[in-house]
Design goal:
CATH superfamily of the largest domain: Type I PLP-dependent aspartate aminotransferase-like (Major domain)
CATH class of the largest domain: Alpha Beta
Shape: globular
EC number: 2.6.1.1
Keywords: Aminotransferase, Pyridoxal phosphate, Pyruvate, Transferase
CATH architecture of the largest domain: 3-Layer(aba) Sandwich
Structural class: alpha/beta
Cofactor: pyridoxal 5'-phosphate
Number of domains: 2
Family: Belongs to the class-I pyridoxal-phosphate-dependent aminotransferase family.
Number of strands: 13
Number of helices: 13
Helix content: 40-55%
Radius of gyration: 21 Å
Order of helices and strands: HHEHHEHEHEHEHEEEHHHEEHEEEH
Distance between the termini: 53 Å
InterPro entries: Aminotransferase_I/II_large, AspAT/PAT-like, PyrdxlP-dep_Trfase, PyrdxlP-dep_Trfase_major, PyrdxlP-dep_Trfase_small
Strand content: 5-15%
Oligomer: single chain
Length: 390
C-alpha cells in the first residue's frame, strides 16, 4: 500500500532542517552535556496561577467536548485583546480557536488555497512553512528577503512573484531573523495583496516580544481586514507552548468555514485548556511583559558581547526570542559552522540554511537559557568564529 503524495511530499524531497538539533539531542541522550540554543522554548515554564486555573477547570468538569470554534468567553477575550491592540473592530465571530499556532497556519492555508494553487512566503522562514503549504496540496514559493535590506521584504520582489498566486504568508516579529517589519514594508505588502487578490496570512505569535519599533498587524491597514487571516497563539506570549492553544482572526465567513474544517479535523481544543488561556489573557499586558523580559534582557547582553569582536555581526534584533548572527567572515556555511560549534564546544545553534537560502552564512541563536550561561555560550561562539575568520 502506498502513502499519499500529500504526505510523502511534505518535505519536498529535501531536509527538514533539523539535523543539528537532532544531533544535539542524541548527544544529550548519550550523556554529553550540550548547551542548547536551538528551539523557541522558554526556560521558564507555564506560570503556576495559569496551571492552577487549568486544574480548577478540569476538576470542575470542563473535560468533555468543548465548543469546536472555541468557548464563547475565550473568543470574546481574544477578540477584545485584538481590538484593543490594533484598533480594528473584532468580535467573537472573527475568532476561531485552534490547537496552537501550527494548526492555525495549516487551517489558514486550507482556507486561502485550493490544491495546486501557489502560496507565497518570505525566506528566511520558520522551518514548517513550506511543509505546511504542501500539506494542503498547495505549491510553496519562497520570496527572498536579503541581508543587505536587514531582511525587510521588498515590495517589488513580492509583486514580481504574485501573479497567479493565492496567498502570502508573513511573520513579524520574525522567526528566525528577529526583524520587525516597518510600516513602509507592510504598506508595500498590503498593496501587492490588494493588486493581486492575495489572502495575507499574518503569523503574529511574537507580537508581545518587540524590543525596538512597533508591531503593526496588517489587518489594521486600510482595506485589509477582509483580506487578512491573523495567526495568534498562547505559546510565546504566555509560555504555554505545550498547552496547544492558538487562534485565527479573519472575516466572519472565513471563520464559519474554518469552524467546519475544525469539525472534521481537530474537533476543537479541550475546555480546561481554553479556560486557562482565558485566565492567562485576563492577566493583562504586565504579565506578558514579564514573560518577555528575559529575552529583552538577553538581547542587551548579546549586543554588548558582539560589539567587542569583529568575526560575528548581529542582524538588527528588534523582536522575538532569537538572534540572527552573520558568520560569513569565517567562510563557512551556517550549517558547517553549527556542526563544528556543536562538535567542538557542545553548543547547539540552528543553521541559517534551516530557514531557507536567504539566510545562508548565518546562524540562529535562541535566547532561551539562563543569563550567565547564555552570555558564556555567546562569548564562546564569538571566540570560535574569530578562530575561523579568514
Amino acid at each position: 500500500m502506498q502513502i499519499s503524495k500529500r504526505l510523502t511530499s511534505i518535505l519536498g524531497g529535501g531536509s527538514d532542517g533539523w539535523g543539528v538539533f537532532l544531533r544535539a539531542r542524541q548527544m544529550i541522550a548519550d550523556g554529553t552535556p550540550v548547551t542548547e540554543l536551538t528551539i523557541g522554548e522558554h526556560d521558564i515554564r507555564t506560570a503556576a496561577p495559569i496551571l492552577q486555573d487549568m486544574h480548577r477547570a478540569a476538576l470542575g468538569g470542563h473535560t468533555g467536548y468543548a465548543a469546536i470554534s472555541g468557548t464563547t468567553t475565550l473568543r470574546d477575550t481574544v477578540a477584545r485583546r485584538v481590538q484593543d491592540r490594533t484598533g480594528v473592530k473584532t468580535t467573537r465571530d472573527n475568532v476561531v480557536i485552534t490547537p496552537g499556532g501550527q494548526s492555525a497556519l495549516f487551517a489558514a492555508h486550507a482556507a486561502a488555497t485550493n490544491p495546486g494553487d501557489t502560496a507565497l512566503f518570505i525566506d528566511p522562514y520558520y522551518a514548517t512553512y513550506p511543509g505546511t503549504i504542501r500539506g494542503v496540496s498547495a505549491i510553496p514559493k519562497a520570496i527572498p528577503a536579503h541581508a543587505k535590506d536587514a531582511f525587510q521584504p521588498q515590495g517589488d520582489e513580492i509583486a514580481a512573484a504574485a501573479p497567479g498566486a493565492k496567498s502570502l504568508l508573513i511573520n513579524s516579529p520574525n522567526n528566525p531573523t528577529g526583524v520587525v517589519y516597518t510600516r513602509p514594508t507592510l504598506d508595500a505588502i498590503a498593496q501587492v495583496c490588494k493588486d493581486n487578490a492575495l489572502w495575507l496570512i499574518s503569523d503574529e505569535v511574537y507580537d508581545t516580544q518587540v524590543w525596538n519599533g512597533t508591531h503593526i498587524s496588517p489587518r489594521a491597514l486600510p482595506d485589509m481586514a477582509d483580506k487578512t487571516l491573523v495567526v495568534g497563539s498562547m505559546s510565546k506570549s504566555h509560555a504555554m507552548t505545550g498547552s496547544r492553544c492558538g487562534w485565527i482572526i479573519g472575516p466572519e465567513d472565513a471563520v464559519e468555514h474554518l469552524t467546519n474544517l475544525a469539525t472534521h479535523t481537530t474537533y476543537g481544543v479541550p475546555g480546561y485548556i481554553q479556560d486557562a488561556a482565558e485566565f492567562a489573557l485576563n492577566q493583562g499586558p504586565a504579565f506578558e511583559e514579564d514573560i518577555a523580559a528575559p529575552f529583552k534582557r538577553r538581547r542587551v547582553l548579546a549586543q554588548d558581547i558582539i560589539a567587542q569582536q569583529n568575526a560575528v555581526s548581529l542582524v538588527p534584533a528588534d523582536g522575538a526570542m532569537y538572534l540572527m548572527l552573520d558568520i560569513r567572515s569565517t567562510g563557512m556555511s551556517g550549517e558547517d559552522f553549527a556542526y563544528a560549534l556543536l562538535d567542538t564546544h557542545h553548543i547547539a545553534v540552528m543553521p541559517g540554511e534551516s530557514f531557507g537560502t536567504a539566510a545562508a552564512g548565518h546562524i540562529r541563536v535562541a535566547m532561551t537559557i539562563e543569563d550567565s550561561a547564555f552570555a558564556q555560550a555567546l562569548k564562546t561562539l564569538c571566540t570560535f568564529a574569530e578562530s575561523r575568520a579568514q
